[in-house]
């Protein structure tokens, strides 16, 4: 029944899990990896399964994961339960939420049902928000994230240096996006609430990859859900889902704008901040971390950015920058 772990950390993760569960042996195999330095393994024995997180402590801190998992459970969401921990070594033993993500199964036909579950869970998560619990999604963090685009996508991936005029266009654009984000009402923000991190589970969805959660703009997770990194949807469907979220949020007493058009603007500008950040992150993952497959999805984000920037006169500088860099949808 024993599988040979692929490396020393994996072997140690297996031993940690077996000891935590009081087992002598179990099937142990990779479950998934993500864009960070974390890895996940699945342990199976006696008709049950568990997930082991391997988070090298010099690279990752497990404590935010533990904190946010408890916040989600307290809010009534289906998040992993922490069954064992070794923070010094960087291992967590988690309940298993299943093998299929929404991204694995979502189709044109079932998207409405899956997103209805995701919207309901998101509203529930946001309704549990409290001040001072999670780090603030403040101007400094928003600006650091935006800087990933010129630093990694433009300089490293495109091999371009921005001219003084282009730098000015970029500064103007960043100011618009940061100001718009800071003007929004603030709630708990998962920060990567998308089909890849939502599990087909009961209750639906199971929620993963929440360790970077912050307290910030209410539209952020809505954009993550419908303007996905790995699958694009027709604008009419995005508009319908966005309206569905806004109506549910209003019904729950969440602080969304009273007018849908105001929320649409928040959604659009928050989305631009996220899309620009992700372009930088995907380039960084390639050049720093040696994970090239994320770059294949960067055209999707260029296609997200251009039509939105074109709708807002204050973002004409961003469109000029994209034109100058040859970034076409």
TrEMBL record:
It comes from the Bacteria. This is Aminoglycoside phosphotransferase. One of its GO terms (molecular function) is ATP binding. Keywords: ATP-binding, Nucleotide-binding, Transferase. Pfam families: APH. Residues 29-258 form the Aminoglycoside phosphotransferase domain. It comes from Stagnimonas aquatica. SUPFAM superfamilies: Protein kinase-like (PK-like). Signal peptide: none annotated.
């Amino acid at each position: 029944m024993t599988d040979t772990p692929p490396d020393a950390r994996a072997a140690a993760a297996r031993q940690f899990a077996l000891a935590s569960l009081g087992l002598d042996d179990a099937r142990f195999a990779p479950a998934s990896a993500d864009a960070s330095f974390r890895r996940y393994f699945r342990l199976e024995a006696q008709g049950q399964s568990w997930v082991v997180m391997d988070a090298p402590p010099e690279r990752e801190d497990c404590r935010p994961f533990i904190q946010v998992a408890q916040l989600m459970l307290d809010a009534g969401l289906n998040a992993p339960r922490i069954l064992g921990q070794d923070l010094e070594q960087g291992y967590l033993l988690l309940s298993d939420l299943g093998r299929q993500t929404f991204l694995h199964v979502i189709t044109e036909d079932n998207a409405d049902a899956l997103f209805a579950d995701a919207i309901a869970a998101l509203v529930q998560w946001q309704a549990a928000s409290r001040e001072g619990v999670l780090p603030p999604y403040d101007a400094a963090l928003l600006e650091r994230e935006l800087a990933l685009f010129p630093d990694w996508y433009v300089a490293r991936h495109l091999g371009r240096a921005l001219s003084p005029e282009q730098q000015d266009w970029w500064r103007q654009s960043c100011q618009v996006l940061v100001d718009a984000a800071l003007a929004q009402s603030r709630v708990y923000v998962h920060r990567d609430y998308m089909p890849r991190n939502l599990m087909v589970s009961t209750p639906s969805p199971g929620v993963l990859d929440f360790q970077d959660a912050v307290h910030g703009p209410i539209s952020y997770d809505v954009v993550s859900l419908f303007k996905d990194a790995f699958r694009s949807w027709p604008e009419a469907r995005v508009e319908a889902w966005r309206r569905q979220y806004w109506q549910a949020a209003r019904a729950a007493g969440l602080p969304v704008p009273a007018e849908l058009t105001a929320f649409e603007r928040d959604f659009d500008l928050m989305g631009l901040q996220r899309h620009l950040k992700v372009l930088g992150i995907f380039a960084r993952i390639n050049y720093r971390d040696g994970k090239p497959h994320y770059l294949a999805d960067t055209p999707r984000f260029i296609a997200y950015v251009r039509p939105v920037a074109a709708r807002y006169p204050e973002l004409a500088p961003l469109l000029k920058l994209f034109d100058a860099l040859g970034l076409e949808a």
